[in-house]
Design goal:
The chain is built from 1 helix and 4 strands. It is α+β, with helices and mostly antiparallel strands.
Length: 100
C-alpha cells in the first residue's frame, strides 16, 4: 500500500528513512530464507518470483515488468512480518503448494 498524501517525516533525514526501508527489506529477505526449514522440500532446482503490487498509477522502475496476479492453485499462505515506512506498508506473504 502506498499513501501518496503522506510526506516523509520531517524529523527523519532521507538517509535515516532509506536505512529504515533497507532494514525492513533485509528483515523480509531473512524471513524468506528462514522459511526453507519448514516449507515442503523440493527434489529439483526451482526459482521464485517476487511480486510487488502497487497502485495502478505508480511508475514502475526500469527493468521491472508489469504483470497480473500469479495465484498458486490449492496453496497455503504463510504471512511474514511486514514493515511500514512513512509512505509504504509492506505485508509479505509466501504462497506455496505442498506435496508437489
Amino acid at each position: 500500500q502506498c499513501d501518496k498524501s503522506i510526506r516523509p517525516q520531517p524529523n527523519l533525514s532521507r538517509t535515516e528513512d532509506l536505512k529504515a526501508i533497507q532494514r525492513g527489506i533485509q528483515d523480509v529477505i531473512r524471513q524468506i530464507v528462514g522459511c526453507v526449514t519448514f516449507l515442503p522440500s523440493l527434489e529439483t532446482s526451482c526459482s521464485f518470483d517476487l511480486l510487488i503490487f502497487t497502485d495502478r498509477d505508480v511508475d514502475i522502475p526500469e527493468g521491472w515488468d508489469e504483470t497480473t496476479a500469479k495465484l498458486v492453485p490449492n496453496c497455503s499462505d504463510l504471512k511474514l512480518k511486514g514493515f511500514t515506512t512513512s509512505i509504504h506498508t509492506v505485508n509479505p506473504t509466501i504462497s506455496y503448494r505442498g506435496g508437489v
